[in-house]
Structure formats: structure tokens, C-alpha cells
Design brief:
The complex is a heterotrimer of chains A (about 300), B (about 300) and C (about 250). Chain A is mainly α and about 300 residues long. Chain A is built from 11 helices and no strands. The interface between A and B is large, with 98 and 103 residues.
Chain lengths: ~300, ~300, ~250
């Protein structure tokens, strides 16, 4: 189409600039991996693969192991996902099938505002509102009624793994909800009318015609939410209690890889600790990248929310 | 048999409706609670006269203590986000132009995909990798505002790239074809015509990226640290700087009541800024897509 | 004239504030095929979508008037009940894309409590036989509905609608997306269906109406122009407009 136009030198220069910048962006991605990889070498030489399942993290003895933080990351993210899932799907279903048309956009916007609130503010709210409520009401109740499960033992302070998970859940709901909403809204009217014309109730239509059709998108949204939860730092840091040991109770303290990095990277315990911390960072990066890649492949271009505020 | 089940089915549908409504309430409750709490605790502090323009007060706990101000932190945030924007906006826009206007090359989709994936990288890792780089190359650069700005730039680049690309895509191909037909060179067409049409969307995206960067504490903690000193000249950027989010983090559990109040004021300030920009940009995008739909 | 199954009285339906059909009054005879013909945009689809209360599910819609099924106004009853008794087949076949043939046909049954596997099997077989699809798919009822051709998918949709045990079957231009052979099969089907169901078929093809329908209604710009036995409407039309349409002078 444009072959007949002679490429003048400004066009060529522009093209070179633009393609160089594009490669820069790709290089950024590789740089992140490369630098973390390079910095992990020292730790890997000392601890080997056992680093990944070792539970000791002792800066005094210069022995480091990643497991407490990996477990912390996965535990808080999973619990957050379990809490967020029904809330996100429920609100997505409400907005797309129940709410009157004029209410849909405002509700959607309101939910997405939750995604715009900075993590520190969630952490602040976590300290001054959620933790108090957990300490006075939720934790004692859990210990009393569900203590037999063994998951809620020990002293509780209102801070800890569960509190962090709950705040994470609030933070990832907008992500999952928005993608589910977009997917559900994209179900063709013909499918919905097919269900209605058979005498389906509203819920039956949703269950039979809309949700199966939107499976892939919803799952993609869930995975994207998981990805967000895995990487969250500040809100978790401010309420999880920061312990270097494997968590023994949901009401007790814990740590995630991101909180480890934020709290200990600048402490002066020698290069081995820094290497160990960055090796944990590499683990986080790999987990996060895989999760995000899988999610993007499922949801490629279904998200069209304003300015990417959702993810 | 048909009529036996009918009532039960309708009941189920109603129950689901109610449950779904409850989930909406549950989801929106934190939003309202956060805003409410911020106003209750931070309102009196924020609306003091010199709050935004005074330096951090010395810590103290008496009732008569000064609870102004957060000027150095605002200056720090503005400086670092400014540096980040200076770096990330050209890079992001140019990369998006590549992905969108030079799409015939497969690399364009790779850039798109990379930007998407990068936007999912935890912000703490952006700070950590810059730290890791500097630790090897030039440790003295750690704990300077420049480094903080670079870390924020790393976070902003994927956002700007993605939103710019989306904005460029909304420009109809007929615009480009008309320009080519008039013999306008590609670089002029892209910058003067296509980019200009997409400008509102691009600006909105940049604004949202800026707000996101302004609220980030994690990468700053590991690259800049914190400081009480005001930023009065460019040379100050060579040292640690305060910032709103890090202030909030550090003072969140302060034993000094006036520092805690300061943090509440900062929380409210940041919250209002973020929410207003967000709502406004949504509104703008809404108006924009309505206009495009009308014109297209 | 035979008994009336469905009576429309002074029906007006709005779309975006403007009436798509105005003041239509019509009696659909029981267990006969009634065709609704007219030029594009005359409101045929809207009329039929009012008969199973699907029209009101769209945005900015409104309905005035009455539609009586066996002398009960369907607008006073629960729409979910009505749609069970008045089924619909759409212009473009719309089987549930994530389901198999079997699941599609049995969909309506799944809304209505638990049935044993044998019961469901029987119902599915019967419906597929009624829609003349059984022979072609009996070996692969578990394969995806989307693996069928267009004509087969439409017969699947008919089977699905029939499996709900309706009294009336609405067909909104069911053959317009199909090739002539598939169309012929469906027309044959319609002729058989009237033994058990009241069929109302919208068509833009006058020859089709002449072939399958016992009665025909002619709509023009949202109003009912003429209604009567098909033969009479086509050979001795009473209204000048009808005559013009039939002789091809417009539309």
C-alpha cells in the first residue's frame, strides 16, 4: 500500500527512533529478569536449590531460606482469592443482569475506584479500622467457633495472615469484577433470548446462557486478580505482622516475598542477605510473570476499562 | 409437576438477586468506609491553613503540637513523579506508536504483549531490580530522588504504553488513509494527525499513570528511603527525599500524635487527588467515546 | 373459523418512544399455521416478540394493549410461565454454544426440577424426531451443537423449543439464514407441527406463506392491513395495499 511512496529520510529516522524505543521496552522486561538472576547468584551458590524449601531465615547466622515467604505469598493470595471470588462474581452478575440500565455504569465506576486507591491507604485503613475490628470481633469468634480446625490457634493481635488476606481480597475484587462484567456483557443477546424463550427465570438464564459462555474470560479475570494479590506490598506489609518464620496460624504473623523485600532490603546485614532477598524476588517475579502471562492469554483484549485502572 | 417447581424456581431467582445485591454492598462498603474514615480523621488536619506548604513538624504528642505540614513530601512526590513522567511518557508513547502504527511487523504485537506483562510486575520488584542494578554498578546512587524517579518510571512505562496504544487504535483508519492520500509523510501523519486525534485518550492515560506512580510507596522505600528536608533545588535530588506515600507508611503507627495526624491528613489529600483524577478521566473518556461514535 | 388460541387486542408496542406496531387486533386460530407477512420494517418481528413478552426485555420499550392466551391476558401473568407455553425459534439459529445437542434439547427440562436420565432421553429423542433431526444426529447427540450445519442447527432449535412442551410456537423468519434445501425441510416440518401446536410464522417470502400457512396476516408500517385464510388473501385480497404488495409493486 505504501510501497510506492519513497521513504524520505525523516520517515526513516522516525522509524529508527520508534523501533529503538520499542526494543527498549522489551529490553526492560529482560533486564528485570537478568538483574534479579545475576544478584541471586551468591545466594544460590551458598544454599543451592534447597533455598526454596528451607524454612530458616536468620540474618544473625547468615542462613536464609525462602519457604516462609513463598508460603506467605501463596497463602495470603489464595485466601484473598477465595474471599474475593463470590464477591466479584456476585457483583458482576448483579450489574449485568439485575441492575437497571442507568445504574450499571455508576456501579461499575464505583467498584473500579477501589482499584485506584493506593496500597498504602489500604494499609493505613487496615491498621486503623480493619485490625481493630479483627482484634475485637473476628479473631476471637474464629478462635472460639473454628478453633477445632487448628488454623486459628495461638495469640492474636488483629494483625496477621488473615487480616492481610482480607484486605487483599478487597483490593482484587475490582479486577475480577470488571473483567467478569465485561465478559458477561459481551454475551450475545441471541444466547440470552434463547434461554428466556424457553421460560427461564433471570437466574436460570444467567446460569445457562451467560456464565458458560463467559467461562474463559471469568477464569482469566480470576487469574489476573491472583496475579495482583501475589505482588501487593504495602497493604500487606502494614497488617501482616512481619515474621520471618513459617506461619502457624491464620491469626498469627507472617510475611510474603514482597513484604520481605520492602522491610529487609535496606537493612545492613551483608551482601549475602541482599542476594537471598533478591533471589526471593526472582521467585516472586517468575510466579507473577507466569500467572500474568496465563491470564493475558485468556483475557487478551477483553479488558477495555479506562486507562488500565483495573489491572 | 410444572407448577410445583415454578414457585421454587422464582424463589431461587429472587434469592440470587438478593445475594448478588448483598455482594455489591459488601464490595462498596470498604470504599465508603475508607473515604469516611479519611475525612473523619484527616479532615481537620488537611484543611489547616499551611498544611500543604509547611515543613514536617517536629514530633511531639501534646495537644498543642503543630500538625502542619507536608510540603517536603509533596515536593518530593512531585519531583520524583515528574522525573518518572519525563522518562516514561516519551518512551511509552513512542513504543505505543510502534505497536500501533507499524503493526505489520510481528514485533509490534510482542511490544504490546510485553507492556501488558510488565504492567503485572509487582511494583516492589521494579524497585528491587533497580536496587540490584545499582548495588553492582554505583551504590551511591541508591537513596537519591533520581533513583526513585527511575523506579516510578519503570512502573509508568507499561501503563503509558498500553493506554496510548488503546487511544491510537480508536483513531479510525480513514484518517490515516486520508493523510497518506494527501502525500503527508508518515512521521508527520503519526505525530501531527493521529496522535493529536488520540491526544485526549493519551493524556488521560498519562494522568492515570501519574496518579498510580504518585501513590506508590514500595519501590520508593527500597530506592529512596525518606527524608524531612524540602526540595529547594535540583541538587537536592541527589539525596533522599520525602514522598507522600512513604510518609503515610512511616507515620502510620507513629507514637507521636502529631505525626499520626499528619499522616491522616496526607491520606485524605492523596485519596482526594486520586479519586478526583480518576473520576474526571473516566468522565472525559466517556465524553470522548461518545464524540467519536458520533463523528465516526 | 376454528377456535382462537391467541387473541391480540389493540396492541401497540414502542421502541425508543416510537410505535413499532400500532393498534393491532388479530385472532390466531388454534392448531393452524398463521403467517405474518409484510415489507421490511413493518413490525412483524416486533409483533411476534410481543407474543412471548420478549419485546419488553429490550431497552427503551413499552407495550400497550392485551394479548390473550386461552382468554387470559399474558401481560397480567408471569412472563416466565408464558414463555413456557409460547415458544420461539429465531431468525438466526442460536443453539447454546457451549452445550451438546443433547444438552441443548434438554435445556428446558433442566429448569424444571430433576428428571431421570430415561425421561430426559425419551423427551430428547421425541423432540428431535418431531423436528426431523433425529436420524441425522442419533449417533452423536453428545457432540457440540456448533458442529451442525445451519439448517441442522435451526432444526435443533426447533427441537429445543418443542421439548419445553409449548402450546404455541412462534417462528421469526426461521429460514432466512438457510439454503433452499434446508428451507424445504423446515417448511415440511411446519406443516406437520400444526397437528399439535399453533404455529405463527413470520416470513418475508410470500411464496413460503402460500406454501405453509392456513391463515395469513399482512402488516404494513406497524398496522394490520388484512387478515384471512391464505388462499383468500392471495387470490382475492380485500385491501388495495395488500394487492399491491402481493403483486410485487413494492417491498
Amino acid at each position: 500500500m505504501s510501497q510506492r511512496r519513497v521513504a524520505r529520510w525523516p520517515d526513516q529516522v522516525f522509524f529508527v527512533i520508534v523501533i529503538l524505543v520499542a526494543f527498549l521496552v522489551i529490553a526492560l522486561a529482560f533486564a528485570i529478569v537478568a538483574i534479579l538472576l545475576y544478584n541471586s547468584q551468591q545466594s544460590f551458590r551458598v544454599f543451592g536449590w534447597a533455598f526454596l524449601w528451607s524454612t530458616t531465615w536468620d540474618p544473625n547466622k547468615q542462613i536464609y531460606g525462602a519457604l516462609p515467604f513463598v508460603v506467605g505469598t501463596l497463602l495470603t493470595s489464595t485466601i484473598a482469592l477465595l474471599i474475593a471470588l463470590p464477591l466479584s462474581l456476585g457483583s458482576a452478575i448483579f450489574i449485568t443482569t439485575v441492575a437497571p440500565r442507568w445504574l450499571r455504569a455508576p456501579l461499575g465506576t464505583a467498584i473500579e475506584l477501589l482499584a485506584a486507591i493506593p496500597s498504602v491507604i489500604y494499609g493505613f485503613w487496615g491498621i486503623w479500622v480493619v485490625h481493630v475490628y479483627m482484634d475485637t470481633t473476628v479473631d476471637p469468634a474464629l478462635q472460639k467457633y473454628l478453633g477445632w480446625t487448628g488454623a486459628f490457634s495461638g495469640t492474636y493481635t488483629g494483625f496477621g495472615v488473615l487480616t492481610a488476606s482480607i484486605i487483599l481480597a478487597v483490593m482484587i475484587v475490582p479486577t475480577i469484577s470488571a473483567i467478569s462484567r465485561d465478559t458477561l456483557a459481551a454475551v450475545p443477546a441471541a444466547q440470552k433470548e434463547a434461554a428466556l424463550s424457553l421460560g427461564a427465570t433471570n437466574w436460570e438464564m444467567t446460569r445457562v446462557a451467560m456464565i458458560p459462555y463467559s467461562r474463559l474470560g471469568i477464569v482469566g479475570g480470576i487469574i489476573l486478580g491472583l496475579g495482583r494479590a501475589i505482588g501487593e506490598t504495602m497493604a500487606v506489609l502494614m497488617v501482616i505482622g512481619s515474621s520471618d518464620r513459617l506461619p502457624t496460624s491464620l491469626l498469627g504473623n507472617g510475611s510474603t516475598i514482597s513484604t520481605l523485600i520492602a522491610s529487609e532490603l535496606l537493612s545492613n546485614n551483608g551482601p549475602l542477605q541482599i542476594s537471598a532477598i533478591l533471589e526471593c524476588g526472582l521467585v516472586l517475579l517468575l510466579i507473577s510473570l507466569s500467572v500474568n502471562v496465563v491470564a493475558r492469554l485468556l483475557v487478551w483484549r477483553i479488558t477495555k476499562s479506562a486507562g488500565g485502572a483495573v489491572a | 409437576m410444572k407448577f410445583d417447581h415454578f414457585a421454587r424456581r422464582k424463589l431461587k431467582s429472587h434469592v440470587v438477586t438478593v445475594l448478588a445485591g448483598l455482594t455489591v454492598v459488601a464490595v462498596l462498603y470498604p470504599l465508603i468506609d475508607i473515604i469516611y474514615t479519611a475525612f473523619v480523621h484527616g479532615g481537620a488536619v488537611l484543611f489547616q491553613l499551611m498544611f500543604l506548604t509547611s515543613r514536617n513538624p517536629t514530633p511531639c504528642s501534646a495537644i498543642s503540637c503543630a500538625t502542619v505540614g507536608i510540603a517536603p513530601d509533596i515536593e518530593g512526590t512531585v519531583a520524583m513523579v515528574g522525573i518518572a513522567a519525563l522518562i516514561s511518557v516519551p518512551i511509552g508513547v513512542l513504543a505505543a506508536i510502534f505497536a500501533s502504527e507499524y503493526r505489520t511487523r510481528g514485533i509490534g504485537r510482542v511490544v504490546s504483549f510485553t507492556a501488558d506483562v510488565l504492567s503485572g510486575v509487582p511494583s516492589i520488584l521494579m524497585g528491587a531490580f533497580i536496587y540490584g542494578y545499582l548495588v553492582l554498578v554505583n551504590p551511591s546512587l541508591i537513596e537519591t530522588a533520581y533513583t526513585g524517579g527511575v523506579a516510578l518510571a519503570a512502573i509508568m512505562i507499561p501503563i503509558v504504553t498500553r493506554t496510548t496504544e488503546e487511544a491510537l487504535r480508536t483513531v479510525p483508519n480513514s484518517t490515516r488513509e486520508a493523510a497518506i492520500a494527501l502525500g503527508i509523510s508518515k512521521w508527520k501523519m503519526t505525530l501531527r494527525i493521529v496522535l493529536t486525534s488520540a491526544l485526549p485518550g493519551v493524556v488521560t492515560g498519562v494522568l492515570l499513570g501519574v496518579m498510580r506512580a504518585a501513590g506508590e510507596a514500595a519501590p520508593l522505600i527500597v530506592t529512596v528511603g525518606f527524608s524531612n528536608l524540602p526540595i529547594n533545588s535540583v541538587s537536592t535530588l541527589n539525596g533522599p527525599a520525602g514522598s507522600l506515600p512513604v510518609l503515610i507508611y512511616l507515620f502510620a503507627q507513629s507514637p507521636y500524635s502529631n505525626w499520626l495526624s499528619l499522616a491522616w491528613g496526607a491520606v485524605l489529600f492523596l485519596l482526594i487527588a486520586v479519586l478526583i483524577v480518576n473520576v474526571l478521566s473516566r468522565y472525559m473518556i466517556h465524553r470522548l467515546s461518545a464524540k467519536m461514535a458520533g463523528a465516526g | 373459523m376454528p377456535e382462537t388460541k391467541l387473541r391480540v387486542e389493540h396492541l401497540t408496542a414502542y421502541y425508543g418512544g416510537k410505535p413499532a406496531i400500532s393498534d393491532i387486533s388479530l385472532d390466531f386460530p388454534d392448531r393452524k399455521v398463521t403467517a405474518i407477512i409484510g415489507p421490511s420494517g413493518c413490525g412483524k418481528s416486533t409483533l411476534v416478540r410481543c407474543l412471548n413478552r420478549l419485546h419488553e426485555t429490550g431497552p427503551f420499550t413499552n407495550v400497550e394493549g392485551q394479548v390473550l392466551l386461552d382468554n387470559e391476558d399474558i401481560y397480567q401473568l408471569d412472563p416466565v410461565r408464558i414463555r413456557r407455553r409460547i415458544g420461539m425459534v429465531f431468525q438466526k439459529p442460536n443453539p447454546f454454544v457451549t452445550m451438546s445437542i443433547y444438552e441443548n434439547v434438554s435445556a428446558a427440562m433442566r429448569f424444571n426440577g430433576r428428571h431421570s436420565r430415561e425421561e430426559t432421553d425419551r423427551a430428547v429423542t421425541r423432540s428431535l424426531q418431531q423436528s426431523a433431526l433425529w436420524e441425522e444426529v442419533k449417533d452423536r447427540v453428545d457432540s457440540p451443537a456448533t458442529s451442525l450445519s445451519g439448517g441442522q442447527q435451526q432444526r435443533l432449535c426447533i427441537a429445543r423449543a418443542l421439548a419445553a412442551n409449548p402450546e404455541v410456537l412462534l417462528m421469526d423468519e426461521p429460514c432466512s439464514a438457510l439454503d433452499p434445501i434446508a428451507t424445504a425441510k423446515i417448511e415440511e416440518l411446519v406443516r406437520q407441527l400444526k397437528e399439535n401446536y399453533t404455529v405463527i410464522i413470520v416470513t418475508h417470502n410470500m411464496q413460503q406463506a402460500a406454501r405453509v400457512a392456513d391463515y395469513t396476516a399482512f402488516l404494513y408500517i406497524g398496522k394490520l392491513v388484512e387478515f384471512g385464510p391464505t388462499e383468500q388473501l392471495f387470490e382475492r385480497p380485500q385491501d388495495k395495499l395488500t394487492e399491491s404488495y402481493i403483486t410485487g409493486r413494492f417491498g
